[in-house]
Design brief:
The chain is of the alpha+beta class and 127 residues long. The protein has helices spanning 83-97, 105-122, and strands spanning 33-43, 46-55, 63-67, 72-76. 15% of the residues are buried.
């Protein structure tokens, strides 16, 4: 069961965030949002940090995952929306953890395909 290996602080995907949206055609902001959010830690990955800044987009669209206990980290680019990035930040590492230890090229490909299938299954019909 996925929740059995979910690190604390990681919430399950929220189906409402995966619903259909009108295409985002908003103009970029006149000036970038330059506030930076920083997360840092030390552990199995060594010393690690993630810094996030919104920039000129209307919304912050990227997501990341950093878990020192499992040794997983990832950055996910939103590409005009945060739904897929947030989904993958919450779920991809769980699929990787189910594969070979240490991960192989083949087990990583399988993890990405499984996460893609799960994302497609969470989308409303017709998306």
């Amino acid at each position: 069961q996925a929740s059995a290996i979910r690190p604390s602080g990681v919430r399950p995907p929220h189906p409402a965030r995966l619903g259909p949206k009108a295409p985002q055609r908003a103009m970029p902001l006149a000036a970038p949002v330059t506030a930076v959010a920083v997360e840092s830690s030390a552990g199995a990955l060594g010393r690690a940090a993630v810094a996030s800044m919104q920039g000129v987009r209307n919304n912050f669209e990227d997501a990341h995952f950093l878990d020192q206990a499992s040794g997983f980290c990832g950055v996910f680019d939103g590409h005009l929306g945060d739904e897929a990035a947030a989904f993958c930040a919450e779920r991809l590492h769980l699929h990787v953890a189910r594969g070979a230890d240490p991960p192989t090229k083949e087990s990583l490909v399988e993890a990405f395909l499984a996460c893609d299938k799960e994302l497609k299954g969470a989308l409303p019909e017709g998306c």
